[in-house]
Write a structure and sequence with these properties.
alpha+beta, globular, about 20% helix, eight-stranded mixed sheet
């Protein structure tokens, strides 16, 4: 058993599932499905959507009108006996561009015999798993694009005294380099955690320096908490949200009827944020003096030790989950009308009207059209078409795109992960 592979080039290669991977009929089995938390999309529900127009070229460009700026703090109009002075507002236009991108998914090839002989239906489960991975990839793409394209980041406890830092932009990862990230993480000061006081500072800087604006209430739905009417959205991890039960500001300002010990933290931070929980936040492991080495660990891994009772189980990667290993985390403050995701629609009709159909809607499908290996008498291996239909695989393609109409309305926040509730932050009785 091996770990799954990502970003592979499968041209001219062959990967068949080991028949010993699954449990077979001679053993008495009770069908059971591991209880995973549902991977509901987080960012897709917070962003707008735009339909792609086919046959209009490879680039989508939007043109937006910019209001004229407020350029005065005082106003002295003229008396009626004097010719009035004149203000001449000038509107301008700016543009944003994007192009569609795509990514493929493929299962290993399935031989007919395990499906005939074994207890579980592996092909159906492979389809469900690919669909899940496509949904996770889409969510990860949105986060990656917004991080790369963000014009500002906020550094919690910034030792340089700024908080808000102008950041290099790109759409391919070349802007915010590892060296730049090292310099930012080295500036995370104090306890470095996302506390209520720090969120107040973030909101002030986001509004006053960046010009962030809240959701208007009619732009996107919000399914986790109250509507996003005239509020900002804070997307963060469960551990940050849970740590607020010991936040000094919460303890000092909680309603007397709220027993944090038994009920935990509830509500909207500072009355200005609606909080959404992200299952797989971006985390960094930093080692060496001055953050000289930065590593991003995979959020989950597979138990590969065949001697263990949980052999084959997918579980949280300790290097990702442990806050003493992956010490730093990324949260987000989001306002309205920031980015739009691109909905491309189906492929051209001529490519969807015949078998095999071209499909990029992000849903897995079963195919038999493939080349399979054939061992010759001399031991050499050649490839022939799967004309007898003894193999099949699940494949999927997702087509993606983002349009940064107002990238200033999304602020990435670099901070340290909470380790525990400090002894000085004892939880009082509800009393």
């Amino acid at each position: 058993m091996n770990l799954p592979a990502i970003d592979q080039n499968l041209c001219g290669s062959w990967t068949q599932l080991n028949k010993d991977t699954y449990n077979t009929v001679p053993y008495y089995l009770q069908k059971a499905t591991a209880e995973f938390r549902k991977d509901w999309p987080t960012f897709a529900n917070l962003l707008g959507k735009r339909r792609w127009s086919q046959n209009q070229g490879p680039i989508l460009r939007t043109v937006m009108t910019e209001r004229s700026p407020m350029i005065r703090q005082t106003a002295y109009p003229q008396p009626l006996t004097v010719t009035p002075t004149v203000d001449v507002p000038v509107q301008r236009e700016r543009t944003a561009e994007t192009s569609p991108l795509w990514h493929d998914f493929s299962s290993v090839a399935f031989n007919w015999y395990p499906e005939f002989n074994d207890f579980l239906k592996h092909v159906k489960n492979a389809i469900l798993d690919i669909n899940r991975q496509i949904a996770l990839y889409e969510e990860t793409f949105y986060k990656t694009y917004m991080w790369d394209y963000a014009p500002y980041v906020y550094v919690v406890g910034d030792t340089a005294g700024q908080g808000i830092v102008a950041a290099p932009q790109s759409t391919d990862g070349t802007g915010k380099t590892t060296a730049w990230l090292q310099s930012m993480l080295n500036r995370v000061g104090g306890n470095g955690q996302l506390t209520f006081i720090e969120m107040s500072n973030i909101l002030n800087k986001f509004q006053q320096v960046v010009g962030g604006t809240p959701y208007s209430g009619s732009e996107v739905p919000n399914k986790d908490s109250s509507p996003l009417t005239d509020k900002y959205c804070l997307v963060t991890s469960e551990e940050v949200y849970n740590s607020w039960a010991g936040d000094p500001w919460v303890l000092n300002n909680r309603p007397l009827a709220l027993n944090i010990l038994t009920e935990g933290f509830r509500g909207e931070p500072l009355g200005r944020f609606v909080t959404k929980i992200e299952k797989f936040p971006r985390r960094w492991a930093v080692t060496g003096e001055g953050a000289t080495a930065i590593t991003e660990h995979a959020p989950e891994t597979v138990q590969l030790d065949s001697a263990r009772f949980d052999f084959g189980r997918t579980y949280p990667n300790p290097s990702y989950a442990n806050p003493t290993v992956s010490q730093y985390c990324l949260s987000w403050v989001m306002g309205g009308n920031s980015y739009e995701t691109i909905e491309v629609g189906p492929p051209p009709g001529d490519f969807t009207s015949m078998d095999p159909m071209m499909n990029w809607n992000g849903k897995a499908q079963i195919i038999k059209a493939m080349m399979v290996p054939c061992t010759q008498p001399d031991g050499s291996v050649t490839y022939e078409f799967n004309e007898r239909g003894r193999y099949l695989k699940a494949i999927g393609t997702v087509i993606l795109g983002m349009l940064g109409n107002n990238a200033f309305n999304v602020l990435p926040v670099l901070h340290k992960r909470p380790l525990f509730i400090l002894p000085s932050q004892t939880v009082p009785n509800a009393g």
